[in-house]
Amino acid sequence: MPSAALPPDEAERIATLRGYRILDSLPDERFDRLTALAAQHFGVPMALISLIDSARQWFKSSVGFAQRETERDHAFCAHAILAPDAVTVVHDATQDPRFANNPLVLGPDHIRFYAGAPILAPNGQPLGTLCILDREPRAFSEEDRHFLTQLAANASDLFDLHLSHLTLAEAATRDPLTRLANRRQLEAAMDTAMEAAFAGRPFALLTIDLDGFRAINNKYGDEAGDDVLSQIGQRLSSSIRASDVPARIGGDEFAIILSDPVSHEIVSRVAQRLIADINAPIEIEGAADGRPVVMSASVGCALALRHGTTPAEVRRSAKEAMYMAKREGRNRLVIADEVVPLLGNASYNTIEHRLGEAIAQDQLKLQWQPYFLTGEGRLTGYEALVRWTCPGLGPVVPSTFIPVAEASGLIGALDEWVLRAACKAALEIPEQLTISVNLSAYWFSREELVPLVKRVLSETGLTPQRLILELTERTIITHDESARHSMESLRELGVGFALDDFGTSYSSLNYLRKLPFDRLKLDRSFVGDLGADRQAEAVAGAIVQLGHALGMSVCAEGVETPLQLGFLNGASCDLVQGYLLGRPDWEPMSASTPVAAFAKA
Ligand code: C2E
Ligand code: CA
Ligand code: CA
């Protein structure tokens, strides 16, 4: 099978095509409308928008054709782009020596007929074609050629539209001088990175402030200053990995998110290298004295979870560390350990150390918070919530030590302790009651959950139907496939699953549909506004209906007032939990039955 010749200026053509950044992009219904129109108008089973890349043809849109791409050597379109100004028509491929033994002709696609009109860039270079295919030989009139050419011209316009959308989107996210991410984009990237950090993939934030930059502007002028900034921007982005995010966040202030894996050693090494890169002499165009300038920078570094559990805290810690680097004499790196009073009064390391001991020495305790059927107010079960009073530090709240446990890997042992303790306690309460246990994302990055739960169930003898595991959206979104796997095996045993804090992090309708949850927990933040905020009410109502539509029951968390309870009752929310009905308590059965609350609502 003869492969097509290469068009003239092939390298340039490929560069033009790639410049559109459309290869491997997501489906776009504007393109799909064109292929649908082509297939319908010509009455053919297949229509494609095919782009000829160096070794493949990739389909931006397709009708009736299963593959996303094929080898370039098999592409009819690779021939069609050799005649950029004409429509290439192959009436019967079996009779055409170029295609007679093409796998698309001989194979299951059985292509006999092809007509393709080139899609041209403004410089006249053919990027690919809009083409139609049939499994029968057919005729193709002059009028047909005209129509197909018109559709291909429409496709060309869409290419330009695609590019201008990208450019606009970039203008909002890029710093125009250095082409690095701007502050806004950095903040968005920090949010994402923080979610990943909680799921076990930590990151570090470097804040880089140039030393004495103002002197450059004063001495050489603003234009030279800009030149220095853009050269430094380039140096920064070329000495980090593609997955890291470099940004310019102010005049002479840069920041970089270093993605996993990070340890003190690696972070120091990267930061020292960046400082050395900044120190290399910079030639500035038109400098009156003709001499290169030498810059230095003060760098602060904060590690996610270790120096902050929110993006704002991590930023603050990195900045504090950067100020310390300035105070200590500039052109150096300071890691936030040295400056930030960590996580309140106790340092991260102290918490990590003491928590490890607490787990090993059985110092953790459980409190139980009841949940009830909304209408009749009948108690149906308890959620286990872990409590820790550290002999040295006093009571430490879960929102402080759970992130530390997650970051250090102690969470595995912690969750296991809670699961075992909860299953044992469940044997002491009436058997119609369920118990809910929170699990962290940790479990879904390894395959230990199923064996653990099985082991604990058989050790304690608890009926699996009485156990409900609560997962957050964060947990599942990062470990989608393995989560589904583990959940399915456990559900076969009878274990139930609740999706915790629903509505707080992702709009994960897709996950909801794909993953076998029995219960959805409407987050406290929605419940808090019920009775006061119409929008919160609309959202809460919609979430209840969504849960029901997907066959799940819905439990509202954080119910604190009769007004909220009344609303939830009216909205057919199945279960309720919150301070109004029962605070977390040391003894499961001592939570008094809140008949009065239900009667009032
Ligand atoms: P969560 O799973 O959403 O647990 C409910 C939290 O809301 C508990 O806080 C509970 O005390 C609190 N709460 C309950 N009712 C109300 C209310 O009416 N109003 C308000 N404002 N708050 C209410 P807690 O115990 O501090 O736990 C915080 C988070 O720590 C939990 O959120 C859960 O994500 C995590 N956690 C707790 N125990 C464990 C555990 O054993 N393992 C794991 N992995 N995480 C746990
Ligand atoms: Ca929970
Ligand atoms: Ca929750």
Summarize the structure.
By secondary structure, this protein is α/β, with parallel strands linked by helices. It has 3 domains: 10-173, 2-Layer Sandwich (Beta-Lactamase); 183-335, Reverse transcriptase/Diguanylate cyclase domain (Alpha-Beta Plaits, 2-Layer Sandwich); 348-600, TIM Barrel, CATH 3.20.20.450. The relative contact order is 0.06.
Chart the SSEs and their pairings.
Blueprint: H1 10-19, H2 29-42, E1 46-52, E2 56-63, E3 69-71, H3 76-80, E4 88-90, H4 103-106, E5 113-120, E6 126-134, H5 142-173, H6 183-198, E7 203-211, H7 213-220, H8 222-238, E8 245-250, E9 253-259, H9 264-279, E10 296-303, H10 311-327, E11 333-335, H11 348-360, E12 365-373, E13 379-390, E14 394-396, H12 398-408, H13 411-426, E15 434-438, H14 449-460, E16 467-472, H15 473-478, H16 480-493, E17 496-502, H17 509-514, E18 519-522, H18 524-528, H19 534-549, E19 553-556, H20 562-570, E20 575-576, H21 595-600
Helix pairs in contact: 2-5, 7-8, 11-12, 13-14, 14-16
This protein binds ligand C2E and calcium ion (2 copies).
One calcium ion is lined by residues 500-501, 521, 557.
Question: Would you give an account of this structure?
Answer:
This protein is globular. The chain has 3 domains: 10-173, Beta-Lactamase, CATH 3.30.450.40; 183-335, 2-Layer Sandwich (Alpha-Beta Plaits), CATH 3.30.70; 348-600, TIM Barrel (Alpha-Beta Barrel). The strands form 3 sheets. An 8-stranded mixed β-barrel has the order 12-13-15-16-17-18-19-20, surrounded by 4 helices. Strands 3-2-1-6-5-4 form a 6-stranded antiparallel beta sheet. It contains 21 helices and 20 strands. Residues 340-345 have low confidence and may be disordered. β19, α20 and β20 form a beta-alpha-beta unit. α11 crosses α12. With 601 residues, it is α/β, with parallel strands linked by helices. The longest helix has 32 residues, at 142-173. The structure holds ligand C2E and calcium ion (2 copies).
